[in-house]
């Protein structure tokens, strides 16, 4: 229970973000989709002679996704996040000044 209580704030940190980001960051569908594609291709090869060959397969898949434009799409617009974060920091600074 102590471990759960200690990590609780970290586990719910995503809830402090704007809704647009919460929706994207609380799911792992992009990672799951990539892992599924790696597993699909791995089944064709079955046995890798060494670790380097497995890494080459993953690298080739990532390059293929990038050149096809699938990975080029922005997952999140970070400019909006940085603006939000700056507003949060400014609000926190104002709170500190009012208390003093």
UniProtKB/TrEMBL annotation:
UniProt keyword terms in alphabetical order: DNA recombination, DNA-binding, Transposition
Top-rank taxon: Bacteria
Biological-process GO terms, alphabetical: DNA transposition
Pfam families: Transposase_mut
Record-level Gene Ontology MF annotations: DNA binding; transposase activity
Keyword Ribosomal protein: no
UniProt function note: Required for the transposition of the insertion element.
Family indicated by similarity: Belongs to the transposase mutator family.
The name this protein goes by in its record: Mutator family transposase
Organism: Thermosinus carboxydivorans Nor1
Lineage, broadest ranks: Bacteria, Bacillati, Bacillota, Negativicutes, Selenomonadales
